[in-house]
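Intended use. Records like the one below are meant for learning the mapping from a protein sequence to its folded structure. Do not use them to infer anything beyond what is encoded.
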Amino acid sequence: MRFGDYLKSMRIRKSLTLRELSTRVNLGHSYLSDIENNKKSAPNDQALLLLADVLNLNATERVTFFDAAAKSKQGIDKNNFHIPADIGEYISLNDKAKAEVRNNINNSKNNK
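Structure written out for the chain above:
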């Protein structure tokens, strides 16, 4: 599912209007409308984290939400890697997580 479609379905399921959601996350309603209609890619990571909280997404919904957002960003910016915002936030704040990820990368390269 495309990110905009998923965002819209979650907003509707939580009984929020576009204007209500835009006010709660401090993003323009026309900008959110463009995202929901797949005219724009997912917003920045901080906005994504706030959207997930405001929408009160459960663990499964958050995985789908953040993965779809990263895929949305990758579609318009093929020169950079986009990891899901929840993972990026965790890794950026946790040195042990960074070391573990790098260790796993090195192990996978050595096992090829």
